Amino acid sequence: MSKIEKLVGLLQRLNSGEKIEDVQKDAEDFLNQISATDLSIAEQQLIDNGMDAEDLRGLCVIHMQMLEGEVERMTASLDEGHPLAIMIQEHDVLLKTLEELEALNATLQEKPLTPELQEELLRLAVTLTGAELHHLREEDALFPELERRGISGPPTVMRLEHDDLRPKKHKLEVLAREALEMDQEEFRHHLAALSRHIIFNLRDHIFKENHILYPAAVETITEREVWSKIEEECDKIGYTPFTKGK
Ligand SMILES: [Fe+2]
Ligand SMILES: [Fe+2]
Known about the structure:
This protein is mainly α. The protein has eleven helices and no strands.
């Protein structure tokens, strides 16, 4: 059995509801040899085999758990205040926000909306829309340097994903603001659809940046002075309300 076939089997077990820890325990040594690319190929095979891409949600969480160590190792190798270290910290906040949104959406599909829950939803939506300067720093300070060095595919995909997610996040914020005045069935319907899209796609996006794009940047941009220039540009663009130390 090929590495990819074996991985597809594991992903199928996870999707049929088996606990992450059980699957991980069974296949620990094997999983240690798996790269981000292997995971992407296995995931693609499941989609090709007829699985709805959005039903794969949750798999990105597993990806991150499996490869958590890699991001930690990369972060440890970066100076404090390094543009990528800041972006990784911002990703952590966004991932936590997505986790909270997932839980809140589940609650609101079952329970009536209260002013407190509406406040909570608005807080999460505003955190997500408040990430715009994070994406802009990637687009205007980091990606151009990668593109100059011949890495153009991943930045193009990342820009498209920013463009896809931006209006969805704004819709979620508007929905949160208008929630109490809306027909509640309609509210729940829109909330479920928007949350599902944002959670799946933003998790996947962050995963690709943390595990493919940022490591490629560390590998490719080796000159300290170039990183200093990127940092200056990042300072000019600005930071999010949740960026630590800025
Ligand atoms: Fe991004
Ligand atoms: Fe990002």
